[in-house]
Amino acid sequence: MKPVPVVPAPGQESVWQYPRPPRLERSPKHIEIWLGGVKIADSSGAYRVLETSHPPGYYLPHSDFLPGVLTPATGSSVCEFKGRASYWTLSAGGVSVPSAAWSYEWPTPEFAPIAGYVALYAGRMERVTVDGELVVPQPGEFYGGWITSEIVGPFKGIPGSWGW
User: How many CA atoms within 13 Å lie on the side-chain side of 85?
Assistant: First the structure.
């Protein structure tokens, strides 16, 4: 079934106006991430990836995470646009979440600025905020986009969206 895009209100973006292939852009937003009662990341230097039908994925500098929070995890995957992803386990406050984050250590030339930057599944964290607003994770187990009130869908990952 073909999706019917929500018309954005002033100040909102529709994921249906995002490009394919995806676009990379700097984000001035303030991002905070908590796990195990500990603020594990605090960043105003992120990039976001914008792709048709997906809420933005945010990539934070590795240096914006507390030391020792990120440890390499097994496995990898390939994005046709960004290249081969490496996975990370995040641990803090006695909580450890395997393969909850990923990075592109050697991305394709178009995505070279995010080399070594880390993205994560917001739904696997205790709390993720963008400019103080609690993030809603993108639906589906595979996708890592972050939904805020500035973004309207429908979003890839909901039931029936596989063919979008």
Answer: 19
Q: Which residues contact 107 (CB under 8 A, 6 or more apart)?
A: 82, 83, 114, 115
Q: Which H helix or E strand runs over 65?
A: none
Whether the ω angle into residue 21 lies within 30 degrees of 0, i.e. cis, is: yes
The three-class DSSP label of residue 111 is helix
Predicted model pTM:
0.96
Q: Give the pLDDT confidence of 63-109 residue by residue, as tens digits.
A: 999 999 999 999 999 999 999 999 999 999 999 999 999 999 999 99
The contacts of residue 78 (CB under 8 Å, 6+ apart) are 84, 85
Give the per-residue pLDDT at 155.
97
| Contact between residue 83 and residue 94 where contact means Cβ atoms under 8 Å apart | no
According to DSSP, residue 3 is labeled: -
116 residue type, one letter:
G
Q: Where are the chain's structural domains?
A: 13-152
Widest pairwise Cα distance in the chain: 46
Under CATH, to which class is 13-152 assigned? mainly beta
